[in-house]
Amino acid sequence: MGFKRAALTKAAEKALGSRDIPLDFDPYPIKTHSLEPNGGRMPYVNLGAVFGDLPEPGKAKDDAQRQYSHAKYMGAHCQGQKEISLEKIGPTIRSEHHGNIEFRRLSKEHGGVLKGELKRGMKERRLTVRECARIQTFPDDFQFVFKNEFGSVNSSQAYQIIGNAVPPLLGFNIAMRLQENWKRYFGKGR
Predict the structure, then answer these.
(1) For strand 42-43 and strand 33-34, is the pairing parallel, antiparallel, or unpaired?
(2) How far is CA 102 from CA 55, 87, 96, 98, in A?
(3) Measured between alpha carbons, how far is 62 from 130 in angstroms, rounded to an integer?
(4) DSSP for 153-189?
(5) What angle do the packed helices 10-17 and 168-186 form, to 10 degrees?
(6) DSSP reduced 3-state for 132
(7) Which of 101-105, 142-146, 165-169, 186-190 has the lowest mean pLDDT?
């Protein structure tokens, strides 16, 4: 994050230029969630909760939930060849995945551990566009896969858009933190 030095108050310039920025001048949001149990913060939201109400692609009405990369499993040594864990936080959604977005579910032969889902006949597949969008905190009414009179966006392009974007909740919380500290940074007259 960058600030124009000439616009800062003397106190803000000193605080933001220090090695250990004082908490009341820190432009980043205060941490609210933790991966550590009993860390004094709220628990993180795991992928099971994020995906809980999403139907499988074949049963979905949402185009973004129906679309996913059909890139084949290439072996654990390659990027994007892992199965996500429903008990953990989401993977990084890369803008340049070349179809190798992580797997929502791997088959037993490829090391899949979601045995209950596999027993119910759920197939090996990669994360859908909607699942990636939810990981990045986009609302479900935000459409990524479409065709209209101005052009179209396919699933591969949608993964790139999602991977390049600032997650909406992160952007919101940074903006709120800047608003909270505005007068501290720039003085009362601004």
Answers:
(1) parallel
(2) 18, 15, 12, 11
(3) 8
(4) E-HHHHHHHHHHSPPHHHHHHHHHHHHHHHHHHH-TT
(5) 130
(6) helix
(7) 186-190
* Residues β-bridged to residue 125: 105
- Point out the least confidently predicted range of 28-42, 85-99, 113-127, 161-175: 28-42
**Token representation of residue 76:** 């654990």
Let me know: does 83 contact 105? Beta carbons within 8 Å: yes
Class of domain 5-186: alpha beta
Going from N- to C-terminal start, the domains of the chain cover: 5-186
Question: CA dist 60 to 9, 53, 88, 117, Å?
Answer: 53, 11, 24, 17
Provide DSSP, 26-84: --SPPP-EESSTTSSSEEPPPHHHHHTTPPPGGG-SSHHHH-B--PPP--TTSTT-SBP
Q: Cα(12)–Cα(24) distance, rounded to whole angstroms? A: 10
Report the alpha-carbon distance of residue 17 to residue 177 in Å, rounded.
18
Q: What is the percentage of the chain residues whose pLDDT exceeds 70?
A: 98
Q: What are phi and psi of 176, to 5 degrees?
A: -65, -40
pTM of the entire structure? 0.88
For residue 128, what is the DSSP state?
B
